């Protein structure tokens, strides 16, 4: 008498950007832009969103929380510690619990790459991926895209340099892929050792040389917590060789902008003085993060027909 | 000039099921059934509930939180860490603090058996017990009862087998007592070593033999965190000797159901494949947990006259 | 192209009481008294307050949360652990994040004295200081003042004894300063070793002798967590020499009251039996804490013109 939950067909889930068409992505960005410009929209029914964060997070977790509350949704905020995960409960049983007690949408960050593969087919509510290991982080990618679109209107022909720790980044791959699909010219910069795998399929340039033509310099955070002490540079050496120094920033094109997902390692990827410089869109990215998450949540609620 | 706070007379508190009459229990179950069937009810006044969880919990904590939010109550969520408990503050002083700052109801889980004895008489607001050590867990018992009632309409004459770690369970004793009072025939199964104390007052049967007549098999979680390494079986040995294996499940009566309070130790108390089998009511129990907690909270608010 | 955020001119911030005139303080107390007497007021716009607690707290954190919710504000509750602070994020970047994602007001407790100096000028939203190291705790001072004012109507001529751990207290200095400005006669009591710095500018008396004329005995918590094991008394020795024993309480003036910021070390600063004695205003202080925080938040929202 063993039965299996059936796979869902239409879904408001958002697991990776790779699985979305450019048309879908553009639609989300358009809605996000409306929210960024002040659009107000609230769910008319009582909807519960559970934010399940199995890894530390400030920006993403609270950005989702603000988005949810501004949409009038009820928020359940779960952070792993002080939970039955300490009694050995599996991820699957934890998410099934939230489904059973009434969550309509799950926002999940988890250290395991593609954690959603094992649980998605057992759930009848959508997952919005807030970061899986070194895999994907689609709402971060979307907020990067929104920030670029606000600046340049179109992606076509834009020169985008993605610089730094490509190997451990969960946005670099998605961003490179999606920006290319949207018509931008993507190149990568940084230590050769980190240009393995997918990064190797993009042209590898030196940051110094790329500054003369780059429209967007997208810096990645060095994820010390994922390096296990294998870094061979001092922070200052890295900064001088591969970071965006004050000197390098002065070489950038007139309207070029700087992106960084934050938290910034000040004086490593980026000179501390540049965090709030006029080219920096770092805090604008965070602001856009709320708009993007509202668009993604609204899309999930509409596709899942929770609102009718 | 020392004075004492007076003991309260009428109370919406819920500490144990043992102290409730079967009539009161039936009334709560009836209200819970209305909530489970979609009844909507919201407090018209601003009411604050403080959830104080001094032990890890996912299910119970968030189940209460969903119930509270669906009733339109304001929730304060306290989990011991990052609190003045770290500065050595006593339970009494912590609960008095929440009373002083405006909590109308306290929902408490605490590792100490009958923690409420020392604080209840110093409080003028009701406590809803969300689990005390290995003592009681009345809302868990109520949700078990609701799940059985939904299935069989009445408790009279039902054969209920409570199987497993009876010594450390905080629901087994209450459930055995209340089910007996409600007319069910309760027997216990599991390792002989665990059939001490109150468990010894019930007939001890082997699970294999009981499967032919049991209407309800109520499995208990092995509380590894309370065993201090004294378990003498491997997980698999336990499963084969005392657990509900796939083989045993196939011996169950046609309409018999499986209950488990969760989190499940998959492959120990229960074969992993049976967690979502057609007899399993495990996720329905969780769903019923929200309905039961709404009924208990509404009862507390009404008895305490917070609503007028 | 480096730019700096400009310093804000008019502000709803509350960092220390020292920087407020007695007229401003009286206005806040007057508004707090209205809230304490049942005044109801709710923000008509959606306002987000972020409570950032980098140190453990029960009372202050939840007191702010109740105040915020009673004012109809949206609350973001951040507690340091499970955040990007674990990835080495600075306080400045954390608060800028909350500003970027939409917080309108920040309530901050942080272990560093005057943490706000480095961040205030980079923010365009106000900070309400909920405690900085051993520096200040202005809302605690305000609730002490409100409690005294409710009792004696005026501060002029009142004899206030501040007793205990003056060196590590973040309210003693503010309270001594403000009470003196408001016309009270402040003296200090306790171990000589702790009467250094600002404490040395007040008359040092023995508690025994002061009880005959004191109107208010304001006890301070011994902050074991800030002493690094340098205490030279046992708890009982301290209690007998410097604490408020049952014997000493009986020597107090007819209408004299006891204040303590809590959590109380029962049997150290104060005999356990006195925590709820008729002179004790300890739980009234907590209740007043909510009223005071509502007044401070409302003031911030009005000065910042968030409501129009």
TrEMBL record, chains A, B, C:
GN (gene name): pyrB
Biological role: Catalyzes the condensation of carbamoyl phosphate and aspartate to form carbamoyl aspartate and inorganic phosphate, the committed step in the de novo pyrimidine nucleotide biosynthesis pathway.
Stored InterPro entries: Asp/Orn_carbamoyltranf_P-bd, Asp/Orn_carbamoylTrfase, Asp/Orn_carbamoylTrfase_sf, Asp_carbamoyltransf, Asp_carbamoyltransf_Asp/Orn-bd
The name this protein goes by in its record: Aspartate carbamoyltransferase
Alphabetized Pfam families for the sequence: OTCace, OTCace_N
Species, as recorded: Halalkalibacter nanhaiisediminis
GO MF annotations in UniProt: amino acid binding; aspartate carbamoyltransferase activity
Binding site for L-aspartate: 87, 170, 221
UniProt-listed Enzyme Commission number(s): 2.1.3.2
């Amino acid at each position: 008498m063993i039965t299996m939950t059936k796979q869902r067909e239409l879904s408001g889930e958002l697991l990776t950007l790779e699985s979305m068409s450019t048309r879908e992505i553009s639609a989300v960005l358009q809605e996000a832009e409306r929210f960024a410009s002040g659009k107000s929209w609230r769910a008319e029914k009582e909807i519960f969103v559970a934010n399940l964060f199995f890894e530390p997070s400030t920006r993403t977790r609270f950005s989702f929380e603000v988005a949810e509350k501004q949409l009038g949704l009820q928020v359940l905020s779960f952070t792993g510690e002080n939970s039955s995960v300490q009694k050995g409960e599996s991820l699957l049983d934890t998410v099934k619990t939230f489904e059973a007690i009434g969550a309509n949408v799950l926002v999940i960050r988890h250290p395991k790459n593609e954690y959603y593969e094992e649980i998605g087919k057992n759930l009848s509510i959508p997952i919005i991926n807030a970061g899986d290991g070194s895999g994907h982080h689609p709402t971060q990618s979307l907020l990067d895209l929104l920030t670029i679109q606000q600046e340049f209107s179109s992606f076509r022909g834009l020169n985008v340099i993605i610089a730094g720790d490509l190997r451990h980044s969960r946005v670099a791959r998605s961003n490179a892929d999606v920006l290319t699909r949207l018509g931008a010219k993507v190149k990568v910069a940084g230590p050769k050792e980190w240009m393995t795998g997918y990064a190797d399929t993009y042209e590898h340039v030196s940051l110094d040389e790329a500054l003369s033509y780059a429209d967007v310099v997208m810096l990645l955070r060095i994820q010390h917590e994922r390096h296990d002490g294998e870094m061979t540079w001092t922070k200052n050496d890295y900064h001088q060789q591969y970071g965006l120094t004050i000197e390098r920033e002065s070489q950038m094109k007139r309207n070029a902008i700087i992106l960084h997902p934050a938290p910034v390692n000040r004086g490593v990827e980026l000179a501390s003085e540049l965090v709030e410089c006029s080219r920096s869109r770092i805090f604008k990215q965070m602001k856009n993060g709320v708009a993007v998450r509202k668009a993604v949540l609204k899309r999930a609620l509409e596709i899942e027909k929770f609102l009718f």
